[in-house]
Design a protein that fits this description.
Blueprint: E1 2-3, H1 7-16, E2 23-31, E3 35-36, E4 41-42, E5 49-56, E6 62-75, E7 88-91, E8 97-100, H2 107-110, E9 115-125
Antiparallel strand pairs: 1-9, 2-5, 3-4, 5-6, 6-9, 7-8, 8-9
Length: 126
């Protein structure tokens, strides 16, 4: 599995998955390692995992799997046209990775698209 750690990694990801252009969300799976402490569930964000699979028709119906670990914040929107036209990735000053299904990772744009902020982003083409 490939990991995003540098700007070069981001460029390679976007090139290899064609920016998820004409991508269709096949599945989203969220896992957490919550601990019951008697009065509810306590989440440990460092142990959360979000796995997204996209069918990318612009690269011969390839399936791109993206795995986020240590998820700080996420939102998956039902795409209005049911496909992704572009995606963006950036690395924040604190080392967290931001992914969006839009052309920018700008916080003002994130509210209207799917996005994930996580400690780690890994990906592969199935």
């Amino acid at each position: 599995m490939n990991i995003i750690q540098t700007q070069t990694d981001i460029l390679r990801f976007l090139e290899q998955v064609n920016s998820l252009h004409d991508g269709y969300l096949l599945s989203a799976q969220f896992e957490n390692s919550g601990i019951s402490r008697g009065n509810g569930l306590t989440l440990d964000p460092s142990k959360t995992v979000l796995r997204l699979c996209y069918l990318v028709t612009s690269i011969h119906d390839a399936i791109a799997e993206i795995t986020f670990e240590g998820v700080r914040e996420w939102q998956i929107r039902e795409p209005q046209w049911n496909e992704i036209l572009d995606s963006a990735v950036s690395i924040l000053d604190d080392g967290f990775v931001v992914w969006t299904d839009d052309e920018s990772t700008d916080p003002e744009i994130r509210s209207g698209c799917s996005y994930v902020i996580a400690r780690t982003m890994k990906w592969k083409i199935l």
